[in-house]
Amino acid sequence: MARIKDVAAHAGVSVATVSRVLNDNPSVTEETRDRVYAAMKELRYVPNAVARSLRTEATRTLGLIIGDILNPFFTELARGVEDEARQAGYTVIIGNADERAEEQDHYVRTLVEQRVDGLLICPTAEVTPLVEELVRTGRPLVFLDRTISGLDVPSVRADGATAIAELVAHLKSRGHRRIAFASGPATLSTGRERTEAFAAAMAEAGLDLRAEYMAAGDFREGSGRAITARLLDLPEPPEVIFFGDNLMTLGGLDEIRARGLSIPGDVAVASFDDVTWFVHVDPPITAIAQPTAEMGRTAVRLLLQGVAGRSGQSVVLPAELVVRRSCERKGA
Amino acid sequence: MARIKDVAAHAGVSVATVSRVLNDNPSVTEETRDRVYAAMKELRYVPNAVARSLRTEATRTLGLIIGDILNPFFTELARGVEDEARQAGYTVIIGNADERAEEQDHYVRTLVEQRVDGLLICPTAEVTPLVEELVRTGRPLVFLDRTISGLDVPSVRADGATAIAELVAHLKSRGHRRIAFASGPATLSTGRERTEAFAAAMAEAGLDLRAEYMAAGDFREGSGRAITARLLDLPEPPEVIFFGDNLMTLGGLDEIRARGLSIPGDVAVASFDDVTWFVHVDPPITAIAQPTAEMGRTAVRLLLQGVAGRSGQSVVLPAELVVRRSCERKGA
DNA sequence: GTCCTCCATGTAATCGATTACATCACCATA
DNA sequence: TATGGTGATGTAATCGATTACATGGAGGAC
């Protein structure tokens, strides 16, 4: 491939001049500029970003490590990140941690080696030594969706507590009393927060929180299904199952469907996290919607502040309850 | 950050030796190796992939340009690509073309600047000058899902013709005669191929192909909805609408639902491309499933052959019909 | 005419790794 | 004891850009 040196020779100027043209330096004659552009075109010159990055110590690249690429929540998050980064002239490298700490660490390592200018992480579990060290190095970093307590890292997340309280009130108003929560893992901040918010909401509503109605899954389809099976096998099964994320909801629907039970007649269903197809399920699923893409965009803005050397404030965006028909009164 | 020079000084060896340790060169004493590792650890040394790439002219990075990041088909494709690339020690940079040629070109440019070792493209439309030039340069390239005729580029795609013929036969066996096809854009190979296969299948089944039942969309939700509205407003609306991809199906379902019509009673629905939630729709949607993740994995293998200098053969994987309940006989 | 300023452009060091080639110590062999 | 081979390590060029500093010519002020 043509190098800057070739372009310089072809245009009869020095490499410095070509570099100036490349970087829109105003101190180049229009005539020279034109000659250089012509030479570039003729030689099909494509600047080498690797060489440039080595010299400038900036790659104009951001790293994004998501929890699970098959989860539409993270896909939409990635979309928001992509959009905002693209607008600011950055490229995004997405790593899929597959909800495993070792995969997450693999990507942290790779992305640091690649010298990304900043890192967006949806931390997979409790802090790993590598992430801890990453924080210490002071490299621009933002936690997205999830946080890790004890680490001073700006973050962007959704607050579901208000919406969860509304949901519980909604369920109560429809005559439901026995409400189960199929939560995410307690190792994730989102898992814990939703569980706590649910417990608080139940208390506020004056409803019993039974131990056997609380089960922790892993934010994936399989655990949603398994938990649903266990709950439905209880001597006194719950009237409602509230799932901690959209994939667990999907698993739960599988199990309910497989047993030939009807929603909400036999068991009502609600989901934390909304996805497009919930309106097409029979009945449409009541869900708590997060401002997902907006979370991604916000996180990029926050991260770029860090890249610019300014420190930013964590952001919490509100989630909201979307009532559909999957939680109506029994027999209604 | 610590450089190789610092590690060398700290361990009391030359940079060459450190580099050899880094690259598992066997001609380093175990004792020296240990000293170097200790120095790396102490200095928290992370090799600079940018510098390495500049020297070795290889980035161990692949570029993937997908059509639309919100389309679960491409997400799953990306997942397959990710998995296989990761196993081979490559990092993937994903670019979202958002079904626009200019966005696609933007990513082609960026990825070539970044000197990715190979490029996987789901070409957005007819060939652009940039893509044409890319092909001429001989850089390792594989087309994924879609192809561009006239360009000699290895590709990986699914063959839907057989499955489409089966689908039409299935529809006929259920008593359907007036079948509409909401296809993708004729500018995409997948749009054209599915349309042709559908036409051929209808002919083979001895069914009429009415012009007003053939409409081209853009593989996105909105066009699926608009086409459905148009079809249902026809003096003699079709008995079945077959959608060209999962997002257009989603849009179609929206419209049908909004009109309060029942499936398959008022109109039957089938989809090219299957997604997880189709089983939860009422009724579950009959669809043609592509081996999506496998396509992604295969494409990476093919691309890596190109990277290694060997030229590979295009691959066509079979799609298959999954019969559910959305196309049963009227009133059945 | 001389000198100074300013502007466009050129020269060469630099970023952090890899690697061809050089070197040096050690040992075996004649 | 000289010779040569071998194996570990070092020296320095190199990859392709950016950029501080140098240079040289044009034009204005006196």
Quick structural summary:
With 332 residues, chain A is α/β, with parallel strands linked by helices. Chain A has helices at 4-11, 15-22, 30-43, 49-56, 72-87, 101-113, 129-137, 161-173, 189-205, 221-232, 246-258, 292-307; strands at 61-66, 91-96, 118-121, 141-144, 155-159, 179-183, 214-216, 240-243, 268-272, 286-289, 315-318, 320-322.
Describe this structure in words.
The structure is a homodimer of 332-residue chains. With 332 residues, chain A is an alpha/beta fold. Chain A folds into three domains: 4-47, lambda repressor-like DNA-binding domains (434 Repressor (Amino-terminal Domain)), CATH 1.10.260.40; 61-157 and 292-316, 3-Layer(aba) Sandwich (Rossmann fold), CATH 3.40.50; 159-290, 3-Layer(aba) Sandwich (Rossmann fold). Chain A contains twelve helices and twelve strands. Chain A has helices at 4-11, 15-22, 30-43, 49-56, 72-87, 101-113, 129-137, 161-173, 189-205, 221-232, 246-258, 292-307, and strands at 61-66, 91-96, 118-121, 141-144, 155-159, 179-183, 214-216, 240-243, 268-272, 286-289, 315-318, 320-322. A six-stranded parallel sheet of chain A has the order 2-1-3-4-5-11. Chain A has a six-stranded mixed sheet with strand order 7-6-8-9-10-12, with helices on both faces. In chain A, strand 3, helix 7 (129-137) and strand 4 form a beta-alpha-beta unit. Chain A is elongated, with a radius of gyration of 25 Å. The mean pLDDT of chain A is 94. Chain A binds a DNA duplex (30 and 30 nucleotides) through helix 2 and helix 4. Chains A, B: InterPro entries: HTH_LacI, LacI/GalR-like_sensor, Lambda_DNA-bd_dom_sf, Peripla_BP_I. Chains A, B: GO terms for molecular function: DNA-binding transcription factor activity; transcription cis-regulatory region binding. Chains A, B: Keywords: DNA-binding, Repressor, Transcription, Transcription regulation.
